[in-house]
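Suppose a colleague, Dr. K., hands you the sequence of a protein chain of 196 amino acids and asks what its three-dimensional shape might be. Before reaching for any lab equipment, you can write down a predicted structure in token form. Begin with the sequence itself:
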Amino acid sequence: MDKKQVTLIIIAIVIVLVGSIIMFYNLSIMKREVDFETKICNLTLELIDKRPSAINIDKDKVGAFTYVSIPTISVLSAEFGKGMQISPEERKNFNENTRIKLRIDDDKSIVCDGIIDIGEKPRIKLLGSKEITIPKGSKFEEPGYTAFDYEDTDISHKVIKNGVVNTEVKGTYTLLYFVEDNMGNVVSTTRRVIVE
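The predicted structure, expressed as tokens, is then:
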């Protein structure tokens, strides 16, 4: 075997060793995340058993679900003893969008579907100006709006507009635009219409 072949074999061994170390490291991180998910699910279900009023879910409706924040579970669990609390190290790995999903199963029991990221809030963009002035007696025409969820899916069809502009009466009218995405994230905005 020449020097070049020995060098290539050594490089291959180093690559295999480094790859193995990275794989085991990633597996240990995944195990910690699974362990934390199991811990938080068990804690949440135990909390519901001890304090059913702590979580708002329709227990008679199969398929009903709710999302509970991890800080909420941490605070509520404090009364049950030190062993059930979520450590600051565990809590810091999750953000304000992290929730525990609870669902009513076919046998009407509460199950934990795990920890999910509910994503960013949707966005509503008003077309035209946020403040419109029109003369008394004229017709107000809605300039329109668009709405997108955090994955940039168009959810404009879900926007609910509330408010009426009476163009026969001078005054300032506020129109409220409200949208909720599939994860329960809500956003709203307003438009002012001034009738002169």
